[in-house]
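Researcher: I'm preparing a figure for a lab meeting and need a structural model of a single chain. I don't have an experimental structure, so a prediction will have to do for now. The sequence is pasted below. Please return the structure as tokens so I can convert it later.
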Amino acid sequence: MNAADISPSIFDQSALASIKRQARSNDPAALKAVAQQFEALFMQMVLKSMRDATPKEGLFDSDQTRLYESLLDQQMSQVLAAKGGTGLAKIIESQLSRNAEAAGSSEPNSAAGGFVEKMMPHAAEASRSSGIPARFIVAQAALETGWGRAEPRGVDGQGSYNVFGIKAGSHWAGPTVEATTTEYVDGVARQRVERFRAYGSYAEAFKDYASLLAGNPRYAAALGSRDPAGFAQGLARAGYATDPAYAEKLTRIINSLPA
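Model: Understood. Here is the structure written out token by token.
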């Protein structure tokens, strides 16, 4: 997503919801887009305040001119934010990046430790059926959800229990949720709304994950590796994720968990 793609109205709740979802992402390109959106919204608010302070009884004042002024302000906000604007976007991006580094750290903090403790029993069960080491499974769930904080949710906020980012393809007949995610196309990050599988519990999610990997020959190399890097690279080469740094990130998290 770039600044020209955003919905600039400060009263557009769907735009604000999109910003909130993207802000949870640890992806640098997504954080930059979010920062630009915030600056564009801020600049539009400033321009709107200036328009409101201008006398409205001029010769050329009408509903039509006010509409076009509003559209012009929206476009100006987008363009200025994309070109550096007031510098606010860089400040916001820097802050979001620091928060993302803390949230995505490979060294589990207390909240991350709680996530590991919560998921480990399900991972152990999935390990028995798939042969994948339990800590590898928990690490992947941590990577996909930012240690449990970015689980795909429906528009009503209903959780999906989908901690592995498994999309709902044409063969999936179960419930789904739609959520914004970052996908890489030719190495470039793009924001998309995708349909994800939804489950009734974490137990169901881990069972489906184990079945998906164990039942698909393309993941054979990953399943056959007991080395963190080998497992992560096997998943990446099989196309589990489009992030070119996926294997590196997953390896780092696996190595941060106790063996």
